[in-house]
Amino acid sequence: MKKSELYRHLTVNLDLALEAHEILRGETGTEVPGVRMDEERYEHCNVTTITIETDEGVKEMNKPKGRYVTMEAPQIRDNDRDTQREITQVLAGKLTELMGIGEDAGVLLVGLGNWNATPDALGPKVINKSLVTRHLFKQSPNELKGKLREVSAIAPGVLGLTGIETAEIIRGIVEHVKPDLVIAVDALAAGSLERIGTSIQLADTGIHPGSGVGNHRAGINEENIGCKVLAIGLPTVVNAAVISGNTLDVLLDELKTSPTLYKIYKGLNPQFMQNIMEKVLSPYKGTLMVTPKEIDSLIDVTARIIAGALGLSLHPGINPEDYERYLQ
């Protein structure tokens, strides 16, 4: 069974457009129709931009038209400040490209997620570290013009804590504050363990909170809240079904060194292998999520990187050399 079909059967959703694109290209051996990929390499990170351009691309990728920029930086785990500083500045550059706003634009930062659950606390932690300025503009707007943008922020919590759809809360704030852009930060589900805490995705299409872990909430996008939305996401969990599938793939590769065993394995019915996976994952089919024990430190580091990149991209007056002074 193809990996894309297996994930669909187990209701596994890949939040990273890069991973969905990799699977489709791997299965067909050709480029995905209506989808363009561009790559850039830096000293400590690689940046891949997936652009879904046509309705056919939307159908294949199961994602809206738009740009999905993924920064892969495994060295985030090393906790080296110089490396993190470069990653922050590259991320800030990509944010600036996607935002496309003037110096007088107002921006609302939204930290999605549950601050009581560590793997889901990225959004609130980014908000806690970000520089907000909207209240200052009422006091001395002339002094701030050209140096800082008017930025407000909120961490609205999740439906289980508030009883209110997050999209409804944001729409109400947007109607009152009237920002030119909403930037939503959220934790994502990855398709591989290597990408937990090391890959950051930017998307100009908005976001559907909880889709990666099976909690489908109302989309936070321009259609639902009445304002352009830029999403920032970081994988913090992996579905156990993904790990099971990857384990079988690695096993198959190892068996290739033994032709006899490989022939037996290849002769197994794909449905037989699927049934084994479902038995192992029962009773949490498609809902068992895995996160590393050091996720708290990864969240702290990446929240600092994202908050720093937001500060640099939103506020022209912040010097790239000392942007950390403006982190909360």
TrEMBL record:
Q: Which lineage?
A: Bacteria, Bacillati, Bacillota, Clostridia, Eubacteriales
Q: What is this protein called?
A: Germination protease
Give the record's PTM text: Autoproteolytically processed. The inactive tetrameric zymogen termed p46 autoprocesses to a smaller form termed p41, which is active only during spore germination.
Q: Which UniProt keywords apply?
A: Hydrolase, Protease, Zymogen
Quaternary structure note: Homotetramer.
Q: Name one GO molecular function term.
A: metalloendopeptidase activity
Q: Which NCBIfam families match?
A: GPR
Note the pro-peptide positions. Answer: 1-15
Entries under InterPro entries matching the protein: Pept_HybD-like_dom_sf, Peptidase_A25
Role of this protein: Initiates the rapid degradation of small, acid-soluble proteins during spore germination.
Matching Gene3D superfamilies, A to Z? Answer: HybD-like (3.40.50.1450)
Q: Which Pfam families match?
A: Peptidase_A25
Enzyme Commission number(s) of this protein: 3.4.24.78
Which reaction equations make up its catalytic activity?
A: Endopeptidase action with P4 Glu or Asp, P1 preferably Glu > Asp, P1' hydrophobic and P2' Ala
- What species is this protein from? Acididesulfobacillus acetoxydans
The GO biological-process annotations, alphabetized, read as:
proteolysis; spore germination
HAMAP family xref list: Germination_prot
Q: Which gene encodes it?
A: gpr
KW Glycosyltransferase (keyword) present: no
Domain of life of the native organism: Bacteria
**Family recorded in the similarity comment:** Belongs to the peptidase A25 family.
